[in-house]
């Protein structure tokens, strides 16, 4: 579907939703072939209005897949999930220390406030029985509050002091992203020139049944030489003409038909080419193309009008095999219809949420290796569990009966929790301590704040640049460059 068609459907669905006809609006949104992150967000909101939590969760997953910095999508997914702390923390991280994000410029009449995110983080921590952490989050929310939100934060803080739960701050699901109004205004066709009308002719006995252009008046014997064909403005990539119709099978491929002119940016060894067509970029088999020299002459028309062969060449195989993962930053999505029955999606809850694709019934070693590749840590440093509490009954390791784990798969999807354990070659004694060389303060909930001169208990080495430690009853990660190790007798 072209950008113009997507824009028309988006505008039509938004207009229907404004009339409170949400079911019809959802059908229109679902008919869009390649939705962007905002459209997926709208689909998720409409599913929530129908109390369809599973489809809403899938839509918000797709929205984040398309734009992993869309904080409001993390916020909505956190409300949809039963276990929401990780997504609320990621929402706060995407705010990047700002008091709020105003989405009005992006077509959404909504302001996402940091104090509201911290309010919901505190509620989630309170539900887990961590009342002190909940109070700390609400105290931090006071630093980000606005006058209109002051009462909400104060009431929640009073509730935590009495160890009572309070209400979650939700998102108004009837508020949707709308397309750019300037683009929508251009959808209406306008006739700036009006209807052509012949007012003069140089053709003898012309009865105005047609039109012939004015011809130059020259003296007898004078001739004009035809200028050389003018080369068109140089464009990025090498111009090629399409010889055969190509129907894409994945979202990163591009649909083209015979006669289209595309610009090849790069040709891969697997006979696939990265091309640009109508300001869209995608993959097309190179053996479907023929190099073209674009000029203003009729040579171009001759090439385009040449009838293609009846049978197109064989579609080349993709070396990449499976589709890219959701967090590849390549604006591609794993379509559910493309997954074979013997594969399933494992949704991993870490300090952030990500997804991997593994064969159903895989061994623990294969599963741990896939996750370790995502996190860039050794596989033996990973601790997996079936719930957020890594108890002895919930932990998954090499001795776990994996058939019981895979029996939990629903709709080819399973959710696991992950944390990092101390590694054998980097095991840290409990008495090991660090001295803070500089003060470190971060708005990220997973970080550990401290001041210069503080003593920090070292728990583990996350990687070469980051450490995990404990200070004043709090645990978190911090840069290794901010501390130095204290000798045992120091």
From TrEMBL:
Keyword line: Cytoplasm, Repeat, SH3 domain, TPR repeat
Molecular-function annotations in GO: superoxide-generating NADPH oxidase activator activity
Region annotation Disordered: where it falls in the sequence: 298-331
Primary location recorded for the protein, binned into one broad class: cytoplasm
GO biological process annotation, one example: superoxide anion generation
PROSITE patterns referenced in this protein's UniProt entry, alphabetically: SH3
InterPro entries: NCF2_NOXA1, PB1_P67, SH3-like_dom_sf, SH3_domain, TPR-like_helical_dom_sf, TPR_rpt
Pfam families for this protein: SH3_9 (PF14604)
Gene3D superfamilies cross-referenced by the UniProt entry: Phosphatidylinositol 3-kinase Catalytic Subunit, Chain A, domain 1, SH3 Domains, Tetratricopeptide repeat domain
UniProt name for this protein: Neutrophil cytosol factor 2
Organism of this sequence: Takifugu flavidus
